Amino acid sequence: MDEFIVDFKVEAKKLVTDMTDILEGLEGDFSLKEGLNDYGQLVDRILGGAKSLELNSESPRNLQDIGNYAEICKLVAYSGSQISKNEGLYNIVVALLLDATEMLGEMILATDTGEEKNIKELLSTTFLERLKLINQQFDVNTRGSLEISENQSKGATQNEIDDLMKALGV
């Protein structure tokens, strides 16, 4: 197994544990919603690692899926941190991210083992329905990153998530 893949898996597994801890700490406490930014920063590290390795890998499909999936998690987390008055939506976002983080962990563990699964095998219909529901609830002015930009177009997060889901083949 490639040394870089091994290092990525070790780091990513630790990040998944840290991300799960963050979400469990946020669960049920709307006043802590900005903690979703911390989650977003960690998942962004997995995204960056997967995308970097994908460029130099002989089997980039799994890494590409990990990168795209991590980017969806990042967009949902950053958007969720901006929920203003909808505690129910916040709780759904945290629950979705807990499930998504578990699936991301499974994808990472399978990397470069010959047991990589098609992303469609990992994504349940329930997960996809919740993702679509959540995404439709976000305000059109929601940002999908920590950057605050005057030039960010309305609905950009929705479009980004839709594009990433298409790239994943779902």
Attribute tags:
170 residues, mainly alpha, 7 helices, 0% strand, globular
Global shape: globular
Strand content: under 5%
Which bin fits the share of residues in helices?
55-70%
Give Rg in angstroms: 15 Å
Q: Helical segment tally? A: 7
Mean pLDDT score, rounded?
83
Span from first to last CA? 29 Å
The topology string of helices and strands comes to HHHHHHH
By DSSP, the count of extended strands is: 0
User: What class do helices, strands and sheet pairing give?
Assistant: mainly alpha
| Model regions low in confidence, pLDDT < 50 over at least 5 residues | 148-154
Q: Major sheet: size, sense and barrel closure? A: none
Number of domains: 1
Write a brief structural summary.
With 170 residues, the chain is mainly α. The protein has helices at 3-26, 36-55, 60-80, 87-110, 119-122, 125-137, 156-167.
Structure characterization notes:
This protein is an all-alpha fold. It has one domain (3-167). It has 7 helices and no strands. It has helices at residues 3-26, 36-55, 60-80, 87-110, 119-122, 125-137, 156-167. Helix 4 crosses helix 6. The longest helix is centred in the first third of the chain and has 24 residues, at 3-26. The protein is globular, with a radius of gyration of 15 Å. Mean pLDDT is 83; it is low at 148-154.
List the helices and strands and how they pair.
Blueprint: H1 3-26, H2 36-55, H3 60-80, H4 87-110, H5 119-122, H6 125-137, H7 156-167
Helix pairs in contact: 1-2, 1-4, 2-3, 3-4, 3-7, 4-6
